[in-house]
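Discrete fold record:
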Amino acid sequence: MQPLAEKIWRDDRLPALATVTDADAMTPIFAEKFHAALARLEARVESCVLERIQHRLGKRCRLLYRLNLRNTRGEKMDQWFLGKLVRAGQARRHYETARAAGNLQNGLWQAVSLWSDLEMVVWTFPNDPDMAGLVKAADPGFVQAHIEANLAAFGLAGNWRGVQTNFVRVKYMPGKRCVLRYHARLQNSAGEERALSFFSKTYSDGMSRFHYEVLQQVYARLRHAIDIPRPLLHLEAANTLWQTPWEGRPLMAQLDTADWEELFPRLAAGIASFHQSQCEQLPPANTLERAFDSAEEDAQMLGWLLPPCQPHLDEILARLKARREMLLPGAAESPVTPIHGAIRLEQFVARQHELALVDFDAVALGDPLYDVAEFMASLQYLEFTAGHSRQRLAQAAALFIKSYERHVPWKLPPARLAFYAISALLSKMHDTMKNLDRPAMAKRDAIFEVLADWLQAI
């Protein structure tokens, strides 16, 4: 196993990969590269955290870093940086392209930097080469102006003006999406003050209006089934939507202290209620084809990264293809309901016994078993990413399925459920390799054991 692992994070065409994926090694490098900005801030780098990696073997690697800083007054700060590691001799070209693109926000930090010694280009947040709207979405002045122009969306009337506006970084997927939480303080002509809080979600694909309109439908038609934060505004100029906060904590952060025998039946009941709601305006999803296409693509990439695993992957794909041909004639008999499309524990927020569901970018009308299988596969994968025991996760999955079956009128054919679950697991395994998740990579034999268990139902 070790030679295979070394092959992946010691990419011959990206010789600096081992360095840039080592957060400890990058801490003094960031301190040296940005010494001028740090001096102006009167701050020092306490640590560097590597939050995301997207590695394409032999081609490039995108990395999201968070620098934790502390100034001379003892105040803590942080800043995000997007690094793009490329092959020898290519960094300057990428750097010049980034500078020529414009729409860069320069401040204390340089918007985009060339690190020739590492063959890497580094963007300072909110600069992102694939998300032009992010500079506006993260601009407190731009945000404050849109709050003042849309007071009714916040339940306000009269003459209110922004006094202070700032944000907290929540989730950033470079080149794809970024979630910020804004806090604004307003004051009216009578001197009264009001505090506002909301989430901002920026996209890279020009689809923010589509996502906003779908979210409006989901909120109007499905919130009786499960709590859903309310959409507030769409900002065309920033390719961004705003949404109300749902005060709680991520369910994943509470998993270790939760009562699983109570939690998973409750999750199943909520998902079952969501699936039995009506929202005919949602886009249709051919879930069988989506799952097979995803499995085929992920298996191809995994076979390239892990040649010794190719025979196992070929067998899995052959079984999926045969089963798809058998399932397709009966696909019309499958229930068609609202589905979340990416339902995992990470998509739930909890406060005491209340739950809210977030992130509806993949919501559609499709086979509800697609959601059920995705949830179960993501639950199983916690063995490899969070260290939970397989036995306890299996018990949780059994509780979930038993409760879900009690709350829906349709059956859960094992073959169709397994078809979707295998596709979901292959996707997660590919993400593990692409993100250089070393602990999970070391457990790939165990991942194939879980895949083999599902394959028995195909």
Notes: Residues 1-7 have pLDDT under 50 and may be disordered. The CA atoms of residues 4 and 306 lie 7 Å apart. The longest helix spans residues 414-434. The two ends are 29 Å apart (CA to CA).
